Amino acid sequence: MDVTSLNDSPPFVDLNCLLPPIFLLMANQPSPPSSKYKMALLGLIWVLLAMAPVIPAVDYYVMDLPDRAYSADHELMKPSGLVGHGLGILGSAMMIFGVATYSLRKRSSFLARFGKLSSWLTFHIFLCTLGPFYVTLHTTFRFGGIVSISFWSMVAVVVSGLFGRYVYARIPKSLNGVFKDATSLLSQQQAQLDKLREAYGDSAFLSELEATLLIQNRDGLQMSIPAAVAASIRTPFERRGYRSRVEARTRKLPTGAPMRDALLEQSIRCWNLNRQLLLLKPFQRAFGYWHVFHLPLAIIMFLILFIHVGIAIAFGYGWIF
Fold first, then answer.
1. Position 258 in a domain
2. Are 74 and 210 part of one and the same domain?
3. How many domains does the chain have?
4. Residue 2 placed within a domain
5. Secondary structure of the chain in the HEC alphabet?
6. Residues 33 and 91 in one domain
7. Do residues 49 and 160 both lie within one domain?
8. Is 213 found in the same domain as 165?
9. Which residues form the domain of 261?
10. pLDDT tens sequence for the chain (321 residues)
């Protein structure tokens, strides 16, 4: 195997980028199996809570809009009805609470003792995706006037938030959540290569691997944000191919099976670090742009939401109050 054959496939990464965008993208990568089980459980809870108001009224929601007024469920499910109005209030409260608590956690040293920032972010995403779903049910899928501006800005905030979480999860961080820089990652990668060389000698395989890493690190400096996102999406499918090629190469080495397995795993760690290096700069730029885009959208959404609530109260739509 020559350097070109190693360089044909992008580096190995964790499988987290295949996880569903609403729930399992909340998990940092790489994550242990127990963390993935927790995310899956949280996703199941999300689905159950989301479906709880839908299943009893599914016939109402699938009706044509003109026919809904004649449905027996209309008085309960319409935007000003007991259930429909309640869903709007509950969904709005979830969004406000989710944004407020996460913002306070980021800025308060006192709240730092009550869990990791990543856990608070998971809670934030849980509320700020379930809340908009309830608000959508509140509208009964009828969008017009100022409500449409609020709704579509809400959709944009949710979508941009999920993208921001996707990017955030793929920027390497230290144990305390601080972003790592390229120098730190290069040092880790070089230390891993030194361990490989110390354990297995200055073999042709390691020389090829190191040369390939250097080539891909150089190419990663010029990677655009769309190319980085595309590479991140492709990597789960390329993982198996890369691992198979390395396994085939290590089987030819004159060492025992345990040593070959260790060499395989350590070389994969090098590729993990290399992947982080490849995506570091473009994803850091994307995260900076995301901050500029996401916050104004959220402000517009909440501003119109408060105007909508004020108008509703002024016209006497106070729900059960």
1. yes
2. no
3. 2
4. no
5. CCHHHHHCCCCCCCHHHHCCCCCHHHCCCCCCHHHHHHHHHHHHHHHHHHHCCCHHHHHHHHCCHHHHCCCCCHHHHCCCCHHHHHHHHHHHHHHHHHHHHHHHHHHCCCHHHHCCHHHHHHHHHHHHHHHHHHHHHHHCCCCCCHHHHHHHHHHHHHHHHHHHHHHHHCCCECCCCCECCHHHHHHHHHHHHHHHHHHHCCCHHHHHHHHHHHHHHHHHCCCCHHHHHHHHHHHHHHHHHHHHHHHHHHCCCCCCHHHHHHHHHHHHHHHHHHHHHHHHHHHHHHHHHHHHHHHHHHHHHHHHHHHHHHHHHHCCCCCCC
6. yes
7. yes
8. no
9. 187-287
10. 333 344 443 333 333 333 334 443 444 444 555 677 888 898 899 999 999 999 998 889 888 888 888 888 888 998 888 999 999 999 999 999 999 999 898 888 888 788 888 788 889 999 999 999 999 999 888 877 666 777 888 888 888 888 888 888 888 776 555 677 777 777 777 777 777 667 666 566 666 666 666 555 555 556 788 888 888 888 778 777 777 877 777 777 666 666 677 777 777 777 777 777 788 888 888 888 888 888 888 888 888 888 888 888 887 777 665
Residues 158 and 80 in one domain: yes
In this structure, the answer to whether residues 120 and 212 fall within a common structural domain is no
Is the same domain home to 173 and 50?
yes
> Do 57 and 134 have their domain in common?
yes
User: pTM of the predicted model, to two decimals?
Assistant: 0.69
